[in-house]
Design brief:
This protein is α/β, with parallel strands linked by helices. It is built from five helices and seven strands, in the order E-H-E-H-E-H-E-E-E-H-E-H. 29% of the residues lie in helices and 20% in strands. It has a seven-stranded parallel β-sheet.
């Protein structure tokens, strides 16, 4: 029998992850990222950029997760990430590049604090941000397409990161 939301057997655990979105401007993607942030119980989400459509369409997709997740809308992803450069946070950019590594191959310590950077739906993560990231990682794909929806990619990345944070 399927369990209701109230009857699930999951243990609540806050994960030391800050998601920084670099100019993601599609309302359903924003809502999906908030819903994922709630599901993985991350520390915070920062939707960086100008004209980010935080509103009713985002809330419809988030299914009220915006009430449970701390989120903000700073102007610059680069400025936000620079704040973490000399801290205990590992800055992980999720992007396919010449020197990116499969996400299954990254190694995190137990409860390692992470800044996970997600990029614009069309242009990805800016070059300036890639240059200051500690790790650039990608999701291996086996079909003809070389990219996937940012919210789908975020789900895979959050699963892998929290798995490592919980199992070490």
């Amino acid at each position: 029998m399927q369990l209701s939301h109230k009857d699930n057997r999951f243990t609540s655990k806050k994960h030391p992850i800050i998601i920084v979105c670099d100019n993601i401007n599609n309302s359903p993607n924003l809502g999906s990222i908030l819903r994922l942030a709630d599901a993985f119980n991350v520390q915070e989400v920062r939707f960086c950029g100008e004209n980010i459509p935080i509103g009713r369409r985002m809330q419809k997709t988030s299914r009220s997760s915006e009430k449970n997740v701390v989120f903000s809308n700073p102007d610059s992803a680069l400025n936000e990430i620079q704040k973490f450069k000399n801290s205990n946070y590992k800055i992980i950019a999720l992007e396919i590049t010449n020197n990116s590594h499969p996400i299954s191959k990254i190694s995190l310590n137990s409860n390692q604090s992470v800044v996970l950077i997600l990029g614009d739906e069309n242009y990805g993560i800016s070059e300036e941000i890639l240059l200051i990231s500690d790790v650039i990682t990608h999701i291996d794909m086996f079909g003809n397409n070389s990219s996937m929806n940012v919210a789908s990619a975020a789900a895979i990345a959050l699963y892998e990161i929290t798995k490592q944070q919980n199992n070490q």
